[in-house]
Amino acid sequence: MSLQGELRLQVGGFVLDTGPFTVPLQGVTVLFGPSGCGKTTLLRAIAGLEKDVQGRLSFAGQHWLDAGRAVRAVDRRVGFVFQGAALFPHLNVEQNLAYAQRRSGGTVAERNAVVERVGIQPLLRRSVAQLSGGEAQRVAIGRALLTKPQLLCLDEPLSGLDWQARDALLDLVDELAHESALPILYVTHSAAEVERLASRVAFMQQGRIVAVESFQHALSQPRSPLFEQDGPTTVFEGHQERGEREDLRCFVTHSGLRILLPPLAAEQRGGTRSRLRILARDVGVALQPLDGISIQNQIPARIITLEPYRFGRVLLSLETEPGDRLYSEITQLSAERLALAPGQTVYALVKSVALIR
Amino acid sequence: MGQRQLGRRKSSRRPSGRTLALLLMLAFSGALQAVELKVAVAANFAAVLQKLVPDFTQQTGHALRISAASSGTLYAQIRNGAPFDVFLSADLVRPQRLIEEGRADAEQAFVYARGVLVLFAPAAVLSRSLEAEIFDPKRKFLAMANPRTAPYGTAAEQVLDHLHARGGGTLSAQRVVGSSIGQAFQYVMTGNADMGLVALSQVLATRPPVSAQHLLRIDSRLYAPLDQGGVIIKRTPHPLAARRFVAFLRDDAIQARIDAAGYERPAEPVWP
Amino acid sequence: MSALSTLDWLALALTAQVAATTTLALLLLSTPLAWAIVRMRSRLRVVIEAAVALPLVLPPTVLGFYLLILMNPEGALTQALRALGFDGQLSFGFSGLVLASVIYSLPFAVQPLVHAFEAVPRNLLDAATTLGAGRWDRFRSVVIPLSRRGFLTAATLSFAHTVGEFGVVLMVGGNIPGSTQMVSIAIYDHVEALEYSQAHGLSLVMLIFAMVVLSAVYAINRRLVVRP
Description:
The structure holds three protein chains of three kinds.
Chain A: E1 2-11, E2 14-17, E3 21-24, E4 28-32, H1 39-47, E5 54-59, E6 62-66, E7 69-70, H2 73-76, E8 78-81, H3 93-103, H4 108-118, H5 133-145, E9 151-155, H6 163-179, E10 184-188, H7 191-197, E11 200-205, E12 208-214, H8 215-219, E13 233-242, E14 249-253, E15 258-261, H9 263-267, E16 275-279, E17 283-286, E18 297-308, E19 313-319, E20 326-331, H10 332-337, E21 345-350, E22 354-355
Parallel strand pairs in A: 4-10, 4-11, 8-9, 9-10
Antiparallel strand pairs in A: 1-2, 1-3, 1-5, 5-6, 6-7, 11-12, 13-14, 13-16, 14-15, 16-22, 17-21, 18-19, 18-21, 19-20
Chain B: H1 2-11, H2 17-32, E1 36-42, H3 43-60, E2 63-69, H4 71-79, E3 86-88, H5 93-100, E4 110-115, E5 117-120, H6 130-134, E6 141-145, H7 151-166, E7 174-178, H8 181-189, E8 195-199, H9 200-205, E9 215-217, E10 226-232, H10 239-250, H11 252-260, E11 263-264
Parallel strand pairs in B: 1-2, 1-3, 6-7, 6-8
Antiparallel strand pairs in B: 3-10, 4-10, 4-11, 5-8, 5-9
Chain C: H1 6-39, H2 44-57, H3 60-70, H4 76-83, H5 94-118, H6 122-130, H7 135-146, H8 148-164, H9 167-173, H10 183-192, H11 196-226
């Protein structure tokens, strides 16, 4: 079950030429790349919204585009959430939902279920103009779900929203991805959204799909485009447990590594979050455990690689437990003074963590 | 203001050395120096006049610039200071008005043509009497100019009134009224009206030429003469050239050519 | 209003009838035309837009002259209509007045619709597509409701322009009192014949009528604005 193809399209001066690609239809696939690289155009082409697309495209064995014959957008059953929501201003929230439900032959009961699911019950009678950005996107997601889609496309759904609305919507998308088998294509240029949602990442550059990688594989590349803004980042997957003390919680990675959580982070979403993000620049190293220091998470680890990074800094790739990687970014000077070398055992000092899922 | 100036000039007119000298100068300048006369002409006569321009220029050396419009429009323009030298109207009313208002000289008023009304049916052969043709129940529309606003319309109405009074029948066709004789002619020429009471000059100007069998000339006793009068505008800077132009128009050879274009030679002018 | 004759009232009734019929015909004709113009990507669009605007360029009496040629009872158009069961003549009749008014007022109906259709955000149409709406469905359920004000403007301008037109209906109608004489021509005739009291009376009735219709339209328009 995959989405495969090779699409070519010229829109004005811009050329989309993806090259051959295969995307498994499971979980959230993030189309990631800088602004203007063609993410949105690709998403629209997949949904059938662009005319004159050349090449081929098949979805789970259905030929959507083949030898110049294209399945109409209406018949592809792709749910699409637009940047800015694109709700119909002449209809209220309920009518917007009914628009989709009637055309997909759904029942009112199904509609009520979706309303419940995306949490827009109180908004039904509102006019679209009275919605906040976050509310509008919630309605737009509900509306897209009511088309009974076989694929859900989201085009930068968070742009223009404040951080609270972003957070809540990311939770919604994440939950949808986990609850149902509905595959999701998600366009963004924000690495934080990738780290939060992605099962895999399709990297795009100048109209081309450069690589489709699993999320963990993408994270293991120190020079991944994901790291351009915040630098290399480690994302652990695992679960939360009660710590040694009643008021403390810790995060246990799949490989068994325990990381003490600051109280605030632990409170988020009742302790159910399962992804932990650590920026490389928030991780220092020491040659032995340190007393008399505020940093509580001091993790023994082995240096796997040590390579010069940007601005006179060195990036350490550390193995904490077999199979786990933790990035640490330190200065060239520190690396020389401590005489660090691959194979050496050090203590990783984690200054800050963020639970992102 | 213009009235007062004209009045003063009139009162101070007496033979004097200065006037003589001026006249001589004008005479010489007229003979020696070609001028351009601006003639305001009623639309129905414009095409005819255009054809006479080369002859006038050849005879006098003067050029003519022709402005064609409806007589009413030209009259209003002259009243408002339009720089015309000669006005050729489609009727006698407007020239008369200009004379009364002191904008034109009565002595120099003249009738340059008399219009001829015809029944014209481009798709029929008019072999019967006027009554038989015009009252023919098969005819659907009779085009004519608006009797309230156009001289040819007035004439057409007079003809119909005469025919009705004679008891020759009643008009079964519907009257369609053009705001000008030009519009009435267009109704007929485009085939929308099957007959029309129009000007002979219009029919004769049509290319390719219209066969005479589609025409019925209307007895001129059935309508008041369609005399077209002209005047020289007093303010003209070229009075001598303007007089030459009037003399040119009244010349026998030229009058013959005007007749051939679909007009009649006017008798003594009948001023209203 | 005692100054108004039966013929004057007939002229008023005829004008209202012609204007209403013309407005209806124009909306039916201009809607697909304006939509086609908006969707057109080729250079042909420029040509078609220019052609629609042409009635603005030609003086009304000149346009009327060409319409007369078009409406020749032996001409192709009348013959074609006869094949469809139309008997009679276009010129000097009601159908001719409506046809002429439709052509003359075409830009006044098409241009507001083009602007309204163009203002419909593209992504709303795309959204409708992904929600399962086909071409006609999108037009009916998104474009038309979002273009209500454009339709209102088009209808108002078509109606007002038809009521007020003079040159074309004078040419095509033939000024037959009680049959093709519209109010504007009746007023003109009164003025030309120095029947000023009748001219004033008729003008007053026409102005009051237009004022009532236009006020009603603009009241509706305001309501449309308030409702997003």
